Amino acid sequence: MEEREVPVIPMEELVGLNNIEAEAEVLDWKDAIHKAGDILVRNGDIKGSYIDDMIESVNTLGPYMVIAKGFALAHAAPCEAVLRNAVSLINLKNGIDFGSKNDPVKVVMCLACTDRQSHMEKIQKIASQLMKEGMIDDLAACKTKEELYEVFNKEGE
Asked: Which structural domain, as residue segments, surrounds residue 96?
């Protein structure tokens, strides 16, 4: 019997490689939000003012963005500064404090949405990835952006 090559089905890309940075060096939580947001500015997904909006959200509402041990989801309300729905992901060389019981934060994801509805399916898939046992620790331990990409986008388990 002849062996046939099994086609490799590509994983769904929840966060693209060009939207990832590994071992970012940051001074504080504001710098961490800037690093994650700068990726989206560079890619033309958001204007710089959206980064200011995210920082102002923390200044106004407190560290609500730190939604799990070691993980912050940087975001602000949809606005004209968001040019298209996008997500970036960084891990930090050293954990930083947001003033949350879930500090230190070692992984920051930036979420930019043009409206409150169109991105819901993707957010649900991202949330499902993040809730996998040990995912935040696995992301924090990555040394390269390629490794971060593989760990975050992998299926199953």
From this structure: 20-149
Pairwise CA distance, residues 110 & 9, whole Å? 27
Asked if residue 154 belongs to a domain, the reply is no
pLDDT given for residue 10 in this prediction: 46
Q: What is the tally of structural domains in the chain?
A: 1
Token reading at 114: 């043009």
CATH of the domain at 107: 3.40.930.10
Is residue 155 assigned to a domain? no
83, part of any domain: yes
Question: For the chain, what is the mean pLDDT?
Answer: 90
In eight-state DSSP terms, residue 7 is: P
156 pLDDT band, cuts 50/70/90, is low
Could you read off the pLDDT of 57-78 as tens digits, one per residue? Answer: 999 999 999 999 999 999 999 9
SS3 76: coil
* Token pair in block for residue 134: 């040990």
Nearest residue to 58 (alpha-carbon basis) of 101, 100, 109: 100
Give the Cα separation of 33 and 11 in Å (integer): 27
Work out the average pLDDT over 89-103: 97
Residue 7 lies in a domain: no
Give the mean pLDDT of 110-139: 89
Q: Using an 8 Å Cβ cutoff, are 20 and 90 in contact?
A: yes
